[in-house]
Amino acid sequence: MKELTQNLYNQRQSRTGPKLKLWRYAGLLLTYRCSAACRFCSYSCSPQAGGLMPHEIALQAWDSLVQLAGPEAHIHITGGEPFLYFDHLAGLLEEAAARNYPPLNSLETNGFWVQNQSEAREKLHFLNKIGLQELAVSFDPFHAEFVPVESVRTLQTLAQEILGPHRVKIRWEKYLENCPSVEVFLAPQNRTGLQKMLKEDRCRFTGRAAESLGPLAAELPLEQIQKQSCQNVFLNARGVHIDPFGNVFCGQCSGIILGNLHQKPLELLWETFDPPNLPFWAPLFHSGPAGLLPQAAAGGYQPRHLYASKCHLCTDLRRFFFDKGSFLSIIGPEECYCIEKC
Ligand code: SF4
Ligand code: SF4
Q1: Among 143, 172, 204, which residue has the most ligand 1 atoms within 8 Å of its CB, making it the best to mutate?
Q2: Disulfide check for 34: which of 53, 81, 168, 339 has CB 3.0–4.6 Å away?
Q3: What is the three-state SS of the chain?
Q4: Domain ranges for the chain
């Protein structure tokens, strides 16, 4: 387990000053490919998106997280839709078990694969045997555009029977009983209903969510967002997401590449992460996305009247820079920026 003083940023802080926390979790995006293309995806996953995380990269991340956080290391696997590559996933979990890594804490799915009950049972028995701690099933009006509620209900029943109820989480269970159609929320006369739902369900306006829902949920003028820095988000992130190509994102900040596991192991990325001294990260650290506005405006960016959140502004600006080819090593990959194919 690392000491806080092993991080470059922390070494300059006083004893009581704010510190960069140790990363204790890693979310491995097995693939960007998904059976769905939800409007509030915080990446831009879809059936056309690609990528498949090689076992070596996933195992390297798993090992590094144990070096960083010791027994508190928490690994979850997400996507995209990991069950699209179940054999690859199963092979990875078997290799992790053979190396005596701590068991997988959580596996996220949208439940699309529960069409054949005996196949579904087989998969769940495997996950039970391998020691999965929690199956996290995503469901809400946006997922319901692509996955029938009956599939999710069936998965809930089978998973509770095989894994036990305490190892199954549905996010959000309230919609299993009554799931209003997404059209209800998207109706122009129901702006307030949409805004309320997005707040309650903690929608993060990055990736496709920023592009497809951000403008509909926008109610904050730029002046309000200009006061919001990202310092605490970076220092308190407590973990990272890692994409199929080895790109590492701080916490939930999809599409801002902190480093790549093909070039540097995770523990070294943590040790050298010093956001106020890194290009692109420094303005975010001090002033939030508004800190990037002068450079964007000089290149022709036209601010909107209203934004849904600072992450909406951030994604809008990054999309602008992405299209211009600026900050190429930091703003990417294209799977986070809703290119035409997604
Ligand atoms: S939100 Fe989840 S289920 Fe929906 S497109 Fe994104 S990864 Fe797929
Ligand atoms: S504004 Fe950007 S950097 Fe800040 S928390 Fe949101 S996505 Fe992350």
Answers
A1: 143
A2: 81
A3: CCCHHHCHHHHCCCCCCCCCCCCCEEEEECCCECCCCCCCCCCCCECCCCCCCCHHHHHHHHHHHHHHHHHHCEEEEECCCHHHHHHHHHHHHHHHHHCCCCCCCEEEECCCCCCCHHHHHHHHHHHHHHCCCCEEEECCCCHHHCCCHHHHHHHHHHHHHHHCHHHEEEECCHHHHCCCCHHHHHCHHHHHHHHHHHHHCCCCCCHHHHHHCHHHHCCEEHHHHCCCCCHHHHHCCCEEEECCCCEEEECCCCCEEEEECCCCCHHHHHHHCCHHHCCCHHHHHHHHHHHHHHHHHHCCCCCCCEECCHHHHHHHHHHHHHHHCCCCCCECCHHHCCCCCC
A4: 20-336
